[in-house]
Amino acid sequence: MRIGIVTSGLGIARQCLRKNTSVYRTCRRQVTGSGSPLDLNVDSKTGIAVLSMNKPPVNSLNLEFLTELNIALEKVENDKQCKGLIITSSIPKIFSAGLDITEMYQPDIDRLEEFWRTLQDMWIKLYGMNCVTIAAINGHSPAGGCLMSMSCDYRIMAPNYTIGLNETQLGIVAPFWFADVMLNTVGFRQTEMALQLGTLFKTEEALNIGLIDKVVPQEEVLSAAQQEMQRWFKIPGFARQLSKTELRRPTIEKLLKKKEEDIGYFRDYITKDAIQKSLGMYLESLKNRRK
Ligand SMILES: CCCCC/C=C\CCCC/C=C/C(=O)SCCNC(=O)CCNC(=O)[C@H](O)C(C)(C)COP(=O)(O)OP(=O)(O)OC[C@H]1O[C@@H](n2cnc3c(N)ncnc32)[C@H](O)[C@@H]1OP(=O)(O)O
C-alpha cells in the first residue's frame, strides 16, 4: 500500500502520512518522480528499499539512466531508515540488457568518456554499498546487467533466463573490473572460461557455478528477496558491513587508482575501426533478430 508523498524530479519525500491503524504504519515512500526510468520505494517499516528499473524496451544502461541509478543509490545509502536494497526490473522478461550499445557505436567522444565515468561511479557505489543488496533477477541479465547483479550481496533469479559477461560475443572485451567482480564471485577457472567464451549461462547453469544463489519461480522473485533480506538483517550490521568492506575494498581501490587511465583505455579501444565494425554488426543483428 503506498501512502507516501510522490515527489517529482530528484526530490525525496520528506514526510509520510500515517493513519492510526497498524496497517497504515508502514510508510512507503516513492522517491523517484513519475516518468522516471527508476521506481524507488522505501518501506520505512521493513527498512527495505526496492529499486525497480523501468526503461523500455530493455533497461539498457545509457548515460542518463546510469546518472539516475547513481542518484538513487546515493539516496538509499544516505537514508538512515534503509537497511537493505533490492534491485529488480519492471520490464517483463528483462532485468537489464547491459550497456546501451548505441552509447559506444559512432560516439561523441566527450559523451563517451562521461558515459564510462558514470558507469564506473555507479559500480563503485553499488559494489561498496553499506546496506545489504539483493538482485531480484526477473529477466535476462547479460553483460552490464550481470555486472549489476554480481555487485549485489545475493542473487535470486527466475528460471529460463540468461546471465553472464558475453562481451567477447560482441567482439569487445570485458574491462578488468568486470572480470574482477566475476572472479570474486565464481573463481578463476569459471571466469577465464566464461570471459573468453562470452558465456551466457541459463539460470540453472548460473546456479551450478555460483553466479547466482537461488532460483525461484518468476512470480516469487521479489518476495523471496524480501524474505532473504531478513536473514541478513539478523546479523549485527556493523560486523556484516565491515566484513563486506574488507573483502571488496581491494577490488574497488584497484579501479579508483586507475579511473582516468581506464577511461582512456576504453575510449581508445572502443573507437578503433575494428571494434566499431563489430559493434555495428552486433547492433544490426539485434535489429534483424525479429525479422
Ligand atoms: C583492453 C581494454 C578494454 C577496455 C574496455 C573496452 C571495452 C568496453 C567493454 C564494454 C563492456 C560492455 C558491456 C555491455 O553491457 S555491452 C551490452 C551487451 N548486451 C547484450 O549483448 C544484450 C543484447 N540484447 C539482447 O540480447 C536482447 O535484446 C535481450 C536483452 C535478450 C532482449 O531480447 P528481446 O526481448 O527479444 O528484445 P530485442 O532483442 O528485440 O530488443 C529490443 C530493442 O532493444 C535493442 N537493444 C537490445 N539490447 C540493447 C543494448 N544492450 N543496447 C542498445 N539497444 C539494445 C534492440 O536492438 C531492439 O531495438 P529495436 O526495437 O530498435 O530493434
UniProtKB/TrEMBL annotation:
Gene Ontology biological-process entries: fatty acid beta-oxidation
Presence of the UniProt keyword Mitochondrion in the record: yes
UniProtKB keywords: Acetylation, Fatty acid metabolism, Isomerase, Lipid metabolism, Mitochondrion, Transit peptide
Keyword Isomerase: yes
GO molecular function: delta(3)-delta(2)-enoyl-CoA isomerase activity
PROSITE patterns for this protein: ENOYL_COA_HYDRATASE (PS00166)
InterPro entries assigned: ClpP/crotonase-like_dom_sf, Enoyl-CoA_hyd/isom_CS, Enoyl-CoA_hydra/iso
Subcellular location: Mitochondrion matrix
Superkingdom of origin organism: Eukaryota
GO cellular component, one term: mitochondrial matrix
Reactions mediated catalytically: (3Z)-decenoyl-CoA = (2E)-decenoyl-CoA; (3Z)-octenoyl-CoA = (2E)-octenoyl-CoA; (3Z)-dodecenoyl-CoA = (2E)-dodecenoyl-CoA; (2E)-tetradecenoyl-CoA = (3Z)-tetradecenoyl-CoA
Pathway terms, separated by semicolons: Lipid metabolism; fatty acid beta-oxidation
Pfam families: ECH_1
Alphabetized CDD domains for the sequence: crotonase-like (cd06558)
Main location, first listed in the record: mitochondrion
Task of the protein: Key enzyme of fatty acid beta-oxidation. Able to isomerize both 3-cis (3Z) and 3-trans (3E) double bonds into the 2-trans (2E) form in a range of enoyl-CoA species, with a preference for (3Z)-enoyl-CoAs over (3E)-enoyl-CoAs. The catalytic efficiency of this enzyme is not affected by the fatty acyl chain length.
Subunit details: Homotrimer.
Family: Belongs to the enoyl-CoA hydratase/isomerase family.
Name of the featured protein: Enoyl-CoA delta isomerase 1, mitochondrial
Higher taxonomy: Eukaryota, Metazoa, Spiralia, Lophotrochozoa, Mollusca
